[in-house]
Amino acid sequence: MSGSKRSLRELLRVPTGGRALDLGAIQPRATPGLPSAEVVGHEPKTWARARVAAIGAELGRQQEMLFASAKVDPGRGRRLLLVLQAMDAGGKDGTIRRVAGTMNPLGLHVRSFGRPTEEERGHHFLWRIRRALPAPGYVGVFNRSHYEDVLVPRVESLVPERTWRARYDEINEFEAELAEGGVTLLKVFLHISYEEQLERLLRRLDDPRKHWKYEPADVDTRARWADYQAAYAEALTRCGTSRSPWFVVPANRKWYRDWAVANLLRETFEGLGLSYPGPTFDVERERRRLVAQRPGQLRPGGAPKLS
Amino acid sequence: MSGSKRSLRELLRVPTGGRALDLGAIQPRATPGLPSAEVVGHEPKTWARARVAAIGAELGRQQEMLFASAKVDPGRGRRLLLVLQAMDAGGKDGTIRRVAGTMNPLGLHVRSFGRPTEEERGHHFLWRIRRALPAPGYVGVFNRSHYEDVLVPRVESLVPERTWRARYDEINEFEAELAEGGVTLLKVFLHISYEEQLERLLRRLDDPRKHWKYEPADVDTRARWADYQAAYAEALTRCGTSRSPWFVVPANRKWYRDWAVANLLRETFEGLGLSYPGPTFDVERERRRLVAQRPGQLRPGGAPKLS
Question: What pTM, to 2 d.p., does this model score?
Answer without folding.
Answer: 0.94
